[in-house]
Amino acid sequence: MPENAAFPPGLRFEGVTISLDGTRLIALDCNVDPGEVLTVMGPSGSGKSTLLAAITGTLPPAFRLAGRIRLDGQDLAGLPTEARQVGILFQDEYLFPHLSVGANLAFGLKPALKGRAARRARVEAALDEVGLSGFADRDPATLSGGQRARVALQRTLLSEPRALLLDEAFSKLDTGLRQQTRALVFEVARRRALPVLQVTHDHSDAEAAGGPVHCLGQLATRN
Amino acid sequence: MGTVPVTTVRMAGRRPRRARFLPWAPLVTLVVMLGPVLAGILGTLAPAFGYMPALQGTGLSLGPLRALLEWPGLWRAVMLSLGVGLGATAISLAIVTLICAGWAGTRSFTMIERLLSPLLSVPHAAAAFGLAFLIAPSGWLSRGLSTWATGWTRPPDLLILQDPAGLSLIFGLVTKEVPFLLLMTLAALTQVRPASSLRVAQCLGYARITGWLKTVFPLVYRQIRLPVFAVLAFSMSVVDVAIILGPNTPPTLAVQVVRWMNDPDLALRFQAAAGAVLQLGLVLFGIGVWRLIEIAAGRLGKIWVSTGGRGWRGLDQVIRGAALILGATAALAVIAGLAGQVIWSFAGLWQFPDLLPDGFTWRNWHRYGTQLAGPAGETLIIAGAATGLALLLTLACLEAEHRHGLRPATRALWLLYLPLIVPQVAFLTGFQTLSIGAGLDGGRMAVIAAHLVFVLPYVFLSLADPWRAWDAKHDTTARALGAGPDRVLWMVRLPMLLRPVLIATAVGFAVSVGQYLPTLLVGAGRVPTLTTEAVALASGGDRRVTGVYALAQTAAALAPFALALVLPRLLWRNRKGLLHA
Question: ipTM value of the model?
Answer without folding.
Answer: 0.91
